[in-house]
Structures are given as structure tokens and as C-alpha cells.
Amino acid sequence: MLPKERKVPFAIIVFLFLTIFAPRSSAQLNNSTSGQSKTGEASTVAVFAGCYQLALGHWWPWSFGGDTKYVTPPNDIDLLPERGTEGFEKEGFVIRAILATTSRTSGRGGPSYWQVKSESQIDLIWNDGFTGVTLQLEKHGDELRGWAHPHFDGPTFVPRIARVTARRITCGAAQ
Fold it and tell me: CA separation (Å) from 168 to 35, 41, 119, 145, 150?
């Protein structure tokens, strides 16, 4: 007589799969770069620190309508080389909006920070815990170019992106 075959519950199989193949959390990713020397980080931060004018393209595949204000960064920003001390800003270096003297829209304010990803890449993040936008940028001369990725606390079925360019400007000369 053969022994009875035991069936493993489907939930256990799914749990094991997710445990083994789940993406690393942002805390784990940040710890992986903690071995980087403080001097190396400081020099990389200094390369990116300064004032920029942001140009956000059209959202693709379609716009957000009335919710656009939640995913639009300020037009002019200052990337400060100092670490944030409050709330979400503790995740990286401080971003400050530069108040424009013209009638252009100012974009979202609130908690914002930037993170160095490599010697040529940074992320700029605006996040209030419910909505926000992440700009993933790469250095090209005095410009940073990349993509804007909105995020919401609810599910999004169709991801949207927009082209973004950050042009370096003289601090105090925002137009």
C-alpha cells in the first residue's frame, strides 16, 4: 500500500514565492549604499546641488484633469546639500521651491527631498503620504533629463509618465 500524497496549501506556495522573489524595500536599497564613503557622497551631492528650472511635458497617455496639481512639481527649485530633518524629508536631501515673480503656476509644495542614485542620476520626490510625484533624472551637462512618475495612495490601472527637464539656473534669478 502506497502512502497518501500530501498536498501543500496554495497559500503557502504563494507566500514562499513572494518571500523569495519579492523586490527589496527602499530601506534595504538605502542600506546597500551605506558603505559608500561620506566624502564620495558629499562630492556627488555637490555636483547636483543648486537651482533648477523644471519643464514638465504632457502626461502620457492622458492628463490628470483637476488632479494635475497633485503631481506637478514647482517650476523653480533649489536642491540643498543638507539632509532633511522632518517628516518625509528625512529620506534624503532638502528641496526648496523658489518663489517665482511671474504669474506662472507654482506647482505643489509640501514635503520634498532628493536622493543620489549614482554619480549621474538622482530622484526628486514630492510626497505628502497620499499623492506625489517622483522625477527620475540623469545628468546631461548642466541639465538633468528624465521622467516624472506620479504616485497615489489608491490603485492606478494605467500608469502615466511625463518627460521632464531640469535646467540649471543661477540661484536668485528665477524667472
Answer: 30, 20, 17, 11, 23
